[in-house]
Design a protein that fits this description.
Layout (H helix, E strand, L loop, with lengths): L4 E7 L2 E8 L2 E5 L1 E6 L19 E4 H6 L4 H7 L1 H5 L5 E4 L2 H7 L6 H10 L4 E2 L12 H22 L3 E2 L9 H13 L5 E3 L3 H5 L3 H14 L6 E3 L5 H9 L4 E4 L1 H7 L2 E4 L2 E4 L11 H5 L2 H5 L3 H29 L2 H9 L3 H12 L1 H4 L10 E2 L9 H10 L7 E5 L11 E6 L3 E4 L11 E2 L6 H17 L4 E6 L6 H6 L4 E4 L2
Parallel strand pairs: 4-5, 4-11, 5-6, 6-7, 7-8, 9-10, 10-11, 14-18, 15-16, 15-19, 19-20
Antiparallel strand pairs: 1-2, 2-3, 12-13, 16-17
Helix pairs in contact: 5-6, 6-7, 7-9, 9-16, 10-14, 10-15, 11-14, 15-16
Function: Exchanges the guanine residue with 7-cyano-7-deazaguanine (preQ0) at position 15 in the dihydrouridine loop (D-loop) of archaeal tRNAs.
Protein name: tRNA-guanine(15) transglycosylase
Keywords: Glycosyltransferase, Metal-binding, Transferase, tRNA processing, Zinc
């Protein structure tokens, strides 16, 4: 597995990387447009000009098709679709989730994927939907794991994906990921998450992704099945997902829906096209509306692809620049359910901190969620290494009288205490805050001050603060330190 995926840059749990396949190297993170052989809104060979490097199609549809089955075996999948880049094939698990059964076995579908020249094949896993009884989720997971264990016997030299299932039970997701990772697959799709995204259950999605990541090795390439809306890509990448697939660009277009990073609009509700892609630059809303349905659908699909891949480029640059968290916070404020996902992500900050780079370019305070970023946790954890004795001053003012103190510390929102020697280093020196002191940021900062004093109880502390810092937390600090209100 280490031979097929190379990580080039990291930020949070997100990373840019290179996935090596028989038909070329794929730069990640990326979205694979979904191609239905029977319904090609845009021909596969045209998709590269929008930014697509890799496609995904359904081997079960091809397997059951009188039109495509023999042709795929004779000419190969790439010739059949007219695409010379990497292609991944799903096994029919989607049809299994919709119809309850499929007319194929695990052995036959993997063998078929192998024989038609798929770059990355998927075994016939069972996509257990959200909220089913625990026993059903356990039983179906056990069947999936049995099929995964058998898959290597049929796959030949084809790259193989190991889907991680477990419904909405975090313990099952983590167990499934751990056991699947031990089988040494090439990529690890997280399955049965589409119902969560359709219901805007981003809080639950965060649990599924992070708990799955906890069971996988940190270098394992992760595919989030069915995720492709630009609104949620930054969050998913920040959680460590590398590959996505999207039929939404076409399905939304057929329904007259126009994708943006802030959500989806119906074309008949728009007066302006808030985009500068080639479609939006050459057509007005009125002109699109006057086109025949087939042409309009095609153009909307093109816009949706441009919007998706433009967001991916920004995400990649944000990882390189070290400001992915700022992008995630901005995107997650576009919808209350997305914001709920961000808040849940921050609950995992102690885990994320283990993998997050120690230095970056900036730290922008953008709201209460910024108080729980991994950088804040890391900063306060490292402060425990400082040895303090004698009289120590902690102050919110740089101009305070330092006479009579053996050591002096300052306060920075939302981190808390820092020694002067760290004032120019990341994250203290690169932190930008709003001018007004918000209650949440103030109280979080003071809680960190309080914890610092408690952790270093061998010293005698004085906390000198400006009136703008008045808070109920001050009285608690007064129980373990001297208090001085500055004029």
């Amino acid at each position: 597995m280490t031979d097929v995926f190379e990580i080039t840059n990291k930020d949070l749990l997100g990373r840019t990387g290179k996935l090596y396949t028989p038909h070329g190297v794929v730069d990640t993170p990326t979205v694979m447009p979904v191609i239905n052989p029977n319904l090609r809104l845009i021909e596969p060979k045209e998709l590269k000009r929008y930014g697509a490097q890799m496609l995904i199609t359904n081997s079960y549809i091809i397997y059951k098709s009188e039109k495509w089955h023999d042709r795929a075996l004779k000419d190969g999948l790439h010739a059949m679709l007219g695409f010379d880049g990497p292609i991944m094939t799903d096994s029919g698990a989607f049809q299994l989730s919709v119809y309850g059964s499929v007319e194929v076995t695990n052995e036959s579908i993997i063998s078929f994927e192998r024989d038609i020249g798929t770059d990355i094949g998927v075994p016939l896993d069972i996509p257990t939907p959200p909220d089913v009884p625990y026993e059903r989720a356990r039983q179906e997971l056990d069947i999936t794991l049995e099929r995964l264990a058998a898959a290597r016997g049929y796959s030949g030299r084809m790259m193989l994906a190991g889907p991680v299932q477990g419904s909405t039970y975090p313990d099952l997701r983590e167990e499934a990921a751990r056991r699947t990772y031990a089988m040494d697959f090439d990529i690890y799709p997280l399955g049965a998450v589409v119902p969560l995204m359709e219901a805007y259950r981003y809080r639950d999605l965060v649990d599924v992704v992070v708990r799955s990541k906890m069971g996988l090795g940190p270098a394992a390439p992760v595919h989030l099945f069915g995720a492709g809306h630009p609104m949620m890509l930054a969050l998913a990448v920040a959680l460590g997902c590398d590959l996505f697939d999207s039929a939404a660009y076409a399905l939304y277009a057929k329904d007259g829906r126009y994708m943006t990073v802030d959500g989806t609009y119906h074309l008949d509700q728009l007066q302006h096209l808030p985009c500068s892609c080639p479609i939006c630059s050459n057509y007005s809303v009125k002109e699109l509306a006057e086109l025949d349905e087939k042409t309009r659908t095609r153009l909307l699909a093109e816009h949706n692809l441009y919007a998706t891949f433009a967001e991916l480029k920004l995400i990649k640059q944000s990882i390189v620049d070290g400001d992915l968290m700022e992008l995630v916070e901005r995107r997650c404020r576009s919808h209350p359910k997305m914001l709920s996902g961000l808040k849940r992500m921050m609950d995992y900050s102690p885990y994320i901190e283990q993998f997050d780079p120690a230095t970056k370019s900036t730290f922008f305070y953008l709201g209460p969620e910024s108080c729980r970023r991994p950088e804040v946790i890391r900063h306060n954890s490292l402060l425990n290494n400082i040895q303090i004795s004698g009289k120590a001053l902690i102050t919110t003012s740089r101009s305070v009288d330092r006479a009579g103190f053996d050591q002096v510390f300052y306060v920075k929102v939302p981190f808390g205490v820092y020694p002067d020697a760290l004032g120019e280093t990341y994250p203290i020196g690169q932190s930008e805050n709003i001018d007004e002191l918000e209650c949440e940021a103030r109280d979080t900062t003071l809680e960190n001050v309080l914890q610092f004093i408690i952790e270093h109880n061998e010293a005698e502390f004085t906390f000198a603060y400006a009136p703008s810092w008045e808070s109920p937390v001050i009285s608690r600090i007064g129980e373990v330190a001297n208090i001085a209100l500055l004029e």
